[in-house]
């Protein structure tokens, strides 16, 4: 069984409080773990403005999860997204070797240090 790298971003309704949001994120983590996924990295982007209104809402809680898993996991995860009324939108993508390398560099802070260097020069 071949493992592939994936990245998923989901947007939760802005009507949730902090505890409800964490509970929902934990539910999706459990779906991943139950199906044999190894979570590599997570980022909570917080409440952000949507590009366009969805279900009469203009903001949502964004959350990103990078994971390594068998190909069957994506179907189970996206089914869980579709069944949960708190999820406004979601997107799961398979990462190629270049995207994996980029994400690793971003996690290590290479791009933040370059931006700071440019600020100093400018």
TrEMBL record:
Keywords assigned by UniProt? Answer: Ribonucleoprotein, Ribosomal protein, RNA-binding, rRNA-binding
Q: Write down the Gene3D superfamilies for this protein, in alphabetical order.
A: 3.30.70.60
Functionally, this protein is described as follows:
Binds together with bS18 to 16S ribosomal RNA.
Q: What HAMAP family is this protein classified in?
A: Ribosomal_bS6
Please state the gene responsible for encoding this protein. rpsF
Q: Which organism is it from?
A: Pontibacter rugosus
Cellular component terms (Gene Ontology) = ribosome
What's the protein name? Small ribosomal subunit protein bS6
| InterPro entries reported in the protein's UniProt record | Ribosomal_bS6, Ribosomal_bS6_sf, Ribosomal_S6_plastid/chlpt, Transl_elong_EF1B/ribsomal_bS6
Protein family: Belongs to the bacterial ribosomal protein bS6 family.
